[in-house]
Amino acid sequence: MTTLYVLDVPENTAVAKVAAEDPAVTVGQIGPYFVISADGPIVIDRRATGCRHAVWYSCVGAVARGDHITQHDKDALRVEPA
Predict the structure, then answer these.
(1) pLDDT exceeding 70 applies to what percent of the chain?
(2) What is the pLDDT of residues 46-61, one digit of tens each?
(3) Domain extents for the chain?
């Protein structure tokens, strides 16, 4: 399972909302973090979130042990399973 943690602050809410639009992705919460999980890769389109670049590049709190961020640019955030 692929897991991405995003701090639950107003600026990052759109990231979790867009991730939740994918039927293969679940979004939950642990403490002050959104927990975004999927059996396969997680891909979030930056433009769909409406996030400005500074917020976009600072939204990642962590990924699960062994998972890898394979794309984090102006277009998308992609996390691949271990």
Answers:
(1) 100
(2) 999 999 999 999 999 9
(3) 2-80
Write out the H or E segment, with its range, that includes residue 80. strand 76-80
In the CATH scheme, what architecture does the domain 2-80 have? Alpha-Beta Complex (3.90)
Give me 15's structure tokens.
């990231």
Q: If we measure between CA atoms, which residue out of 30, 41, 35, 39 comes closest to residue 68?
A: 41
Query: Whole-prediction pTM value?
Result: 0.94
Give the separation between CA 8 and CA 40, rounded to whole angstroms: 23
Query: What stretches of the chain show up as alpha helix (H) in DSSP?
Result: 13-20, 46-49, 53-58
**Residue 15 · residue 21 · CB < 8 Å:** no
The amino acid at residue 54 is A
